[in-house]
Design a protein that fits this description.
The complex is a heterodimer of chains A (199) and B (398). Chain A is of the alpha+beta class and 199 residues long. Helix content of chain A is 37%, strand content 27%. Classes of the chains: A alpha+beta (199), B alpha/beta (398).
């Protein structure tokens, strides 16, 4: 049986790990919050500074999710998959990139005009090489995610999977990641996912 | 069949679950809408005759200087109905004939729509003159286009949108295959499209990734990509009335975990996807008769692919890239190129890799440079893209 062995939720400039509030900073704007959270949870990953806000949000959620949870050494890199979804794809950075086009188009922004770049950032940080998939839907589709991850794991395409929702547009942001493994944890069902999603 | 949330509770973890793991998944119908034609047959005959859709274009709205690309033509409207963007028209115009050919009913609860795209309606940003509001946010969203296309055909199930850079098309096909094998659906209509706009072209130009000439995959003088526009639709089905059609046997995605815009230095991760795909297809490297590579004609992509194919023991198998004919059609590429690969299997014809003259990768690949007429049974399609993404799938005929 596939289980949720850890989860992380970031919304309204608060960070929750396995249901516990572990960080908040509502006094600043979103970029200020992302930076403060990075300094609190990591502080030693300079690549963070060059990321767009969506990747920063996803990276942070994965950092909090995996910091104490992923059984390092129990999986090979290609045995860990990642399936993410959101509503606004990379629109936040699309807008920023297109502003630069009138002057000098920015290659460093253009690379972030794809939502799966966030998966790339998380994979680089945690050395994950397995199945990686990105989907867009108007809201978090827990039923689809439950099916997709179960199918990948039951098909032996991966032994562990990070899945969830990471969406960001201007100041609005919401990230909920689930670590799914064989083991001890909450039942991996759409009901459990939705309950965690709603906080 | 899958039983809701208690699935798997009594399962032996070491074998494939007792539902539909090995259900054959057939290509029931397909369509390509490209500068080379509006049907798969028309496209294939153009490719067989060596015709390319790549031309030099002078479009001040897209780029200050002339550029090579395979474009659909700016005034063309693809359907009669109003209220759809060019992107959505393109999807509808590609899906329509494929649905008609297949005989499936989109209203059937066992039929799902999957859309593959990278940038969808992004050109709306260009015409919005800097005014961004909630209406534009909604109109530009990929899920809005998917919903409009689904409503056009009357699909009952909410559509799925795959957006994973240049592997989107292959990933969408694999998702459709999984949805059918797991018993969740019986038919999947999978359509991909992307249009070239100032947004997209300026971005690739800013990377200095665009070749000054039509691209030359795997060639010694290759120096970058050529972009292209188009749409492709594949309808997958497990229904036995399609028995005898080309099957999708298996596939896999992977991530390099190395760099966002440069491919893996070793090709190990794409190789992993290939090996997984072969394992799932129950085939070995020796069973693959040809490979439809990603072959973007950037120095690093083609080199990485050469290493991956060699690692997978496929270095002597004939390889082509279709980018010389279509350019890189982004979210449509995996679909268009898989459809052509399936057609190649049917026709027992391997197409030459247009633009290739002299091997320009470190491994001695067997790049196909003339039209080869040989008996074919199985082929491999690969794709790689930004974000370190890789994908592979295996097609086969009975």
């Amino acid at each position: 049986m596939n289980r949720i062995t850890a989860h992380c939720r970031i919304s309204g400039q608060t960070v929750w790990r396995n249901g516990d509030l572990v960080f908040e900073n509502r006094e600043t704007d979103l970029p200020g919050f992302l930076l403060a959270a990075y300094q609190y949870f990591s502080g030693n990953y300079p690549k963070f500074y060059k990321m767009d806000n969506l990747s920063k949000l996803g990276w942070l959620a994965a950092e909090v999710l995996l910091q104490k949870n992923l059984h390092a050494g129990s999986y090979r890199p290609e045995e860990i998959g990642i399936t993410l979804s959101n509503a606004n794809a990379s629109l936040d950075t699309d807008l920023r990139y297109y502003q630069t086009v009138k002057e000098i188009p920015s290659p460093s922004l253009f690379v972030y005009t794809l939502p799966n770049i966030m998966i790339g950032e998380i994979c680089i940080r945690h050395h994950l090489k397995g199945e990686s998939n990105f989907f867009v839907s108007p809201g978090f589709d827990a039923g689809f995610m439950e099916w997709m991850v179960n199918d990948l794991m039951d098909d032996h395409a991966c032994k562990a999977c990070i899945c969830g929702w990471v969406d960001l547009l201007e100041d609005e942001h919401m990230a909920v990641l689930y670590l799914v493994e064989k083991g001890i944890g909450k039942e991996f069902t759409k009901e459990t996912m939705n309950k965690i999603f709603q906080g | 069949m899958v039983q809701g949330n208690d699935r798997g509770s009594m399962r032996n973890e070491n074998i494939y679950p007792p539902h539909m793991r090995n259900t054959p998944v057939y290509i029931a119908a397909d369509n390509i809408l490209s500068p080379l034609g509006t049907t798969t047959a028309g496209n294939f005959s153009q490719l067989s005759a060596g015709v390319s859709g790549v031309r030099e274009h002078n479009e001040p709205g897209m780029a200050a200087l002339p550029f090579y690309a395979a474009l659909l033509g700016s005034r063309e409207s693809f359907i009669k109905e109003e209220g759809y963007t060019r992107f959505e028209q393109l999807l509808i115009a590609s899906i329509q004939p494929a649905v008609a050919d297949s005989g499936i009913d989109p209203r059937d609860a066992k039929t799902v729509l999957i859309i593959s795209t990278t940038k969808g309606n992004i050109s709306l940003l260009e015409t919005a003159a800097g005014k961004f509001d909630p209406g534009l946010k909604e109109r530009i969203a990929l899920h809005t286009s998917a919903r409009l296309v689904a409503e056009y055909f009357g699909f009952n199930q909410p559509p799925i949108v795959a957006s994973n850079a240049c592997i989107s098309g292959v990933m969408a096909i694999l998702t459709g295959m999984r949805l059918i094998r797991s018993g969740r659906f019986e038919h999947a209509v999978i359509a991909g499209a992307d249009l070239i706009s100032n947004f997209v072209l300026s971005g690739f130009q800013s990377f200095q990734a665009i070749s000054a000439r039509p691209c030359r995959p795997f060639d010694r003088s290759r120096d970058g990509i050529t972009l292209g526009e188009g749409a492709g639709t594949i309808i997958l089905s497990s229904h036995r009335r399609y028995a005898g059609s080309i099957q999708v046997l298996g596939g896999s995605t992977s991530n390099d975990a190395n760099h966002l815009s440069a491919p893996s230095r070793t090709g190990e991760e794409l190789c992993h996807s290939i090996v997984q795909s072969l394992r799932r297809a129950n085939l070995s490297a020796g069973d693959i008769d040809f490979i439809s590579a990603h072959g973007t004609a950037t120095l690093y992509n083609d080199e990485m692919e050469a290493k991956a194919l060699t690692l997978a023991n496929l270095q002597s198998v004939p390889v082509n890239s279709l980018k010389g004919y279509y350019g890189h059609t982004l979210g449509a590429a995996g679909l268009i190129e898989s459809i052509i690969a399936a057609r190649s299997l049917k026709e027992n014809l391997i197409l030459p890799s247009l633009g290739f003259e002299e091997l320009g990768v470190s491994q001695p690949l067997n790049i196909c440079s003339t039209l080869l007429s040989v008996p074919l049974k199985s082929c491999l399609k690969t794709a790689s893209g930004f974000g370190g993404s890789n994908a592979a799938l295996v097609l086969s005929k009975e």
